Amino acid sequence: MPDLSPFYLKHMKATTVHKYLHWSIALCVCFMVITIAWEPLRQWHVTTGYGLIALYLLRVVLTKLRGTGYTPPFARSAPMLQRVEGWLYMLFYAGLAVALYTGYMRVHGPESLVESMLWVHIKSMYYLVVFILAQVGYAVLAETSWFSRAVYSKG
């Protein structure tokens, strides 16, 4: 079966399971943004949040068992751009953890925390939307041959 990964992902050591988890998380996050923007789907935001918590925990377990699927930012032997990508992934998953925790606490936490959890939850979602847009922009840019040669060339 041919590798259909975009050029910029070919240097990553992601397994098929990593890729399915990646795209499942991406689709859930995108769907959650839609559910906030469209009032009739608001309850789906919470329901999808539970699924996203499960996917996130599965991702954490998979990372412990099989590694990250991307270049760890502490790998000194890796090219600088790949280490930067590793830091971005770590920042993304940290931001996602904050969004998931505050969303869960908004629904199930003590009444005294609801307002502060909502504030942090909303701010964390802005971060995730900006991150997703930046990642899509990077992916489009990375597919251009001049960028790919400049970033991933050995010399």
From TrEMBL:
Entry's Gene Ontology molecular function annotations: electron transfer activity
Membrane topology: Multi-pass membrane protein
Main location per the UniProt record: membrane
Membrane-spanning intervals of the chain: 20-38, 44-65, 86-104, 124-141
Alphabetical UniProt keywords: Cell membrane, Membrane, Transmembrane, Transmembrane helix
A Gene Ontology term for the protein's cellular component: plasma membrane
Location in or out of the cell: Cell membrane
Highest taxon of source: Bacteria
GO BP of this protein: respiratory electron transport chain
Record-annotated Cytochrome b561 bacterial/Ni-hydrogenase domain positions: 16-143
The name this protein goes by in its record: Cytochrome b561 bacterial/Ni-hydrogenase domain-containing protein
Organism: Chitinophaga parva
Source organism phylogeny: Bacteria, Pseudomonadati, Bacteroidota, Chitinophagia, Chitinophagales
